[in-house]
Design a protein that fits this description.
globular; 70% helix; mainly alpha; 131 residues
Length: 131
Amino acid sequence: MDSLLYLFLEKTDSKMVNNMEYNKLQKHIAFRIRECRKAQGLSQEKLSEIAGLGVKAIQNIENMKYDFKIKTLESVIKALNLTVEEFFNLQSFESDREDSSEVLFENLTKLPKDKQGKIISSFNEIVKNIK
């Protein structure tokens, strides 16, 4: 798991990472943890037990109350039985799929309208910061 997360960070465009507001990234991670936990029917207590963390750590991450280490995030992702790519909704870096825009559109249309709007707004903000 360590190598996948570091590979993601290494392969990500540094301008995009530098321009991305830290708070938005933290908010996204907190949202994804809560979303994945609830989708699996896990309580914060059960997730903390599986991840080997205190329940307060999960609560603090989900409520953006403190900065956490990459290792902590890796433990949570593993406890959710997800890969880094699945957690961040990424395709494999080695994938050369030509239909990635179709997959992106398909996944987007599966979301509720309010979440579609949030994703589109976030995407537009990222693109604006890359330019």
